Amino acid sequence: MTTDKGIHRRSLMAGAGLAAIATPFVAGATRTHAQDMESDSMQVADPPASDSFNLGDFKLLVVEDGSRVMDNPGDTFGTGQDPETVAALLEENFLPPDQMVNGFAPVLVDTGSETVLFDTGMGPAGRSWGAGRLRDGLIANGYQPEDIDIVVITHMHGDHILGLMEEDGPAFPNARYVFGEKEYAFWSDDARMGTPAEGGHETVKKMVVPLADQATFIGGGDEIVPGITAMEAFGHTPGHLIFMLESGDRRLLLAADTANQYVLSLQRPDWHVRFDMDKEMAAETRKKVFDMVAAERIPFLGYHMPFPAVGYVEKTGEGYRFMPKTYQFKL
Ligand SMILES: [Zn+2]
């Protein structure tokens, strides 16, 4: 996903409404009325939703950085399809045809010796509409921003990199960084000026380029720390990377933005997605990655899957059926 200003503007009011509905359920019993009023005015959960579970010796912590309502899901996840076909598939899956909720799920992997954060959410740019909550979620779970050892960026769309910087400097001040070599080369290149990628280029210059001195640049097959290996999954962006986690006899794929809508993009992986920069390549990658996930029966975490964004896929006729995790990681 990218940060599309049009979608942002359209969804502001609807997104705020959704958060307001959630607020009464999350206000703590010990909070004062004034705090609750403040919480209502910010219209965000406090702390943000999070989910932690073990994968072998790794501890994973998924934080809901934020979510927003998007209108007309078919315009984004079924570009070029007959709107009635898209609406029918959504309704068949008990979803409304005209709106969807899209969340952002960065994940911290604590290997026991290092803390590795994958993607950074919306950062300060999302605060006005209730996103940019990653650091709050980490702190609520006992991790200070200073505790993060490595920040890995799967790709350089705004919803993944805007949380790299706070107003006063790097959001994770003691971290080193891991960036995809191909991804960084694309977005940091001044040749993007005057193209549709110009906005992304400007964001990367502000958020990512200042951190390049502390970064390692990687490609497919590179190991970040023992048990975390990068894989190429190009198409959504030119250098989009995903990561296989392996600990003990457990595996989980961090699939980032390989598929971004659990019905439309998984059940119909060939459908074009507006935010996929190379739509054909992204569809091919989607099928290759999820064929593997289905065949090997491994769980995956998708950055925009329904929170806590972890599940399995079963291969069906044209695509895959998403099954959210339940208690598999407790046994
Ligand atoms: Zn995204």
UniProtKB/TrEMBL annotation:
<feature type="domain" description="Metallo-beta-lactamase">
    <location>
        <begin position="103"/>
        <end position="304"/>
    </location>
</feature>
<feature type="signal peptide">
    <location>
        <begin position="1"/>
        <end position="29"/>
    </location>
</feature>
<keyword id="KW-0378">Hydrolase</keyword>
<dbReference type="InterPro" id="IPR001279">
    <property type="entry name" value="Metallo-B-lactamas"/>
</dbReference>
<dbReference type="InterPro" id="IPR036866">
    <property type="entry name" value="RibonucZ/Hydroxyglut_hydro"/>
</dbReference>
<keyword id="KW-0479">Metal-binding</keyword>
<keyword id="KW-0862">Zinc</keyword>
<protein>
    <submittedName>
        <fullName>Glyoxylase-like metal-dependent hydrolase (Beta-lactamase superfamily II)</fullName>
    </submittedName>
</protein>
<keyword id="KW-0732">Signal</keyword>
<comment type="similarity">
    <text>Belongs to the metallo-beta-lactamase superfamily.</text>
</comment>
<dbReference type="InterPro" id="IPR006311">
    <property type="entry name" value="TAT_signal"/>
</dbReference>
<dbReference type="InterPro" id="IPR051013">
    <property type="entry name" value="MBL_superfamily_lactonases"/>
</dbReference>
<dbReference type="Pfam" id="PF00753">
    <property type="entry name" value="Lactamase_B"/>
</dbReference>
